[in-house]
């Protein structure tokens, strides 16, 4: 009886965790993408460091690959006036439109304890936006990464 109860709870947990993901959005992101622009209010005056890597404008032109069947991929900064950076990533999209991102730098995802929570917006077949909320000058500011399909 205990085994049956345990199996039922395990099955319910698996079904609940899988149903919280938005597979349609994830499949729509599958493929190779480039960040066409990064925008936020007062960007001409204030610099924002994105993902604890580099200035947000260094991400313009960066290459991203998203694999939807295993939620892995990669990102590479390609702006020659910025630090070189490339890393594997792990990502998911929830039904609420939350986009989670781990930049693993070659480590196993379960060993990476930090990640980023962004919002997925305006998704089409050829573009989407990821929105990060960061504190800029003591105010909550939306930094918007505009992705274009390659």
TrEMBL record:
Assigned keywords, A-Z: Signal
Annotated InterPro entries: Lipocalin-like (IPR024311)
Signal peptide: 1-19
Domain Lipocalin-like: 29-108
Name of protein: Lipocalin-like domain-containing protein
Taxonomic source organism: Flavobacterium kingsejongi
């Amino acid at each position: 009886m205990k085994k049956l109860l345990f199996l039922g709870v395990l099955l319910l947990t698996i079904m609940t965790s899988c149903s919280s993901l938005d597979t349609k959005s994830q499949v729509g992101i599958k493929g190779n993408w480039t960040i066409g622009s990064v925008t936020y209010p007062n960007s001409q005056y204030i610099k924002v460091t994105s993902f604890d890597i580099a200035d947000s404008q260094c991400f313009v032109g960066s290459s991203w690959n998203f694999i939807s069947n295993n939620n892995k991929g990669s990102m590479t900064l390609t702006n020659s006036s910025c630090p070189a950076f490339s890393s594997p990533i792990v990502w998911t999209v929830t039904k609420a439109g939350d986009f989670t991102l781990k930049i693993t730098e070659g480590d196993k995802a379960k060993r990476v304890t930090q990640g980023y929570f962004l919002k997925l917006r305006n998704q089409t077949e050829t573009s989407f936006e990821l929105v990060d909320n960061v504190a800029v000058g003591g105010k909550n500011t939306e930094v918007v990464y505009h992705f274009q399909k390659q």
